[in-house]
Amino acid sequence: MKFVSHIEESVLKLDAINQKIWEKGFNIDTLSTLTTLTKEVYNGTTVFERIPQAQQSGLSRGSALLCSAVIICRGCPRTESENREIYSTEDLIGDGRIQEVLIESWAKIVGCWYEHAHLYLLSISQAYDYGTESSIFFDVNRRLVRKFITLKHYNVLRLALDRFRS
Asked: What pLDDT shows up at residue 146?
């Protein structure tokens, strides 16, 4: 009997869901498996091979939606967009565009897509600060900070999502 490490077992699980999403899209089975894996990342029984384990608890604590999005992005193939120049405002190609399309279709299915996210954030928060990478909003009543990011500093969506930690 071959010993499989915790990381190797996690990679197999994550590879399996990414393959299912590629083959079948988002259906009841893939959404259920995605939810299960998101919970497993939260409780530490599944880990991302490319994110240090100490940071993963912050990723999953930040939001189950964020964690699920990172799992989805993880499965996108590597393409020429990995070499896209930072600050380029051209339309994303390859990997980055594939990630955007997958995340948008998943978010619409699970009911967390906002067509005009910036306007939505303004309706529930007050604008606090703007930069080239993001806009910061503050919800005074709930004492909550929200961050609206742009992709122009990142080659691919996955790298932008990796920046969010609790």
From this structure: 83
